[in-house]
Amino acid sequence: xxxxxxxxxxxxxxxxxxxxxxxxxxxxxxxxxxxxxxxxxxxxxxxxxxxxxxxxxxxxxxxxxxxxxxxxxxxxxxxxxxxxxxxxxxxxxxxxxxxxxxxxxxxxxxxx
Amino acid sequence: xxxxxxxxxxxxxxxxxxxxxxxxxxxxxxxxxxxxxxxxxxxxxxxxxxxxxxxxxxxxxxxxxxxxxxxxxxxxxxxxxxxxxxxxxxxxxxxxxxxxxxxxxxxxxxxxxxx
Lengths: 112, 115
Hints:
The complex is a heterodimer of chains A (112) and B (115). Chain A is mainly β. Chain A has strands at 3-6, 11-14, 19-21, 23-26, 32-38, 44-50, 56-59, 62-65, 75-77, 86-94, 99-102, 106-111. Chain A is globular. The model of chain A has no long low-confidence stretch (mean pLDDT 92). Chain B has 115 residues and is an all-beta fold. In chain B, β5 (43-51) and β6 form a beta hairpin. Chain B is globular, with a radius of gyration of 13 Å. Chain B has no helices and eleven strands. The chains are: A mainly beta (112), B mainly beta (115). Chain A binds chain B through residues 4, 32, 34, 41-46, 49, 89, 91, 93, 98, 100-105, and chain B through 4, 6, 9, 40-45, 90, 92, 98-102, 104, 106-109.
C-alpha cells in the first residue's frame, strides 16, 4: 500500500535559519502530494500541494517540489521565523479510492 | 464565521465507559471524517460519511461508532471495546465527495485520555 516517510524530529532551528524537512513516498500510479501544518492546539491546515511530477507547491515562503525520480517532496524555507514553530505533515493522495496517507509528522521549533 | 467545531477540547474516560466526541460544521459540506492521531504517527482514518444517514469504516474502525443524522453533525463514540483510546481525535469535512485532500477542513481536535 501507499506510505509516506518523514524525517524524524524534533527539529530545532534559530530564527532566519534554512529549513529542510525530508519526505519520501511509496505509491502506485501518480499521487498528489501535500504538506500540512498543525499549530499548537489547532487542527491541520493545508500548507501547499503538488499534483504532478516537477510541480512546485509554495505558500508563506515554504516550497516543495514533486520529484518522481526520487519519490520525494521535501519541504524547504529559506528563513524560518518563530511563528513557524509547528508540526509539519507530509501526505499523499492517490489510487482509485483516493486514500489519503499521512506521514508521522515533524515537530519544528524555531528559537529567537 | 464558517468552520468546524469540535468539543470538548479535553475529555477523560474511565475504564469501561463510552464517551462521545462532538463535531459540528456550518460549511454546508457533504462529507465528514474522523481521524485519530497518536504521538509520532500520522493520522489514521476511523470513519467517514459522504452523505446524511450513510457512513463507512476507515482503517481503524474497531471500538468506535458514528452517526450522521444531520448534515452538520458527525459525532464519534469511543466505546469500551476500544482498548487504547488515548489519542488526539481530529474531525474534518469536505465539499468534495471524491475526498480531495486540498478541500479538507480540519477542526481543532479533542484530546481523549483514559483515567
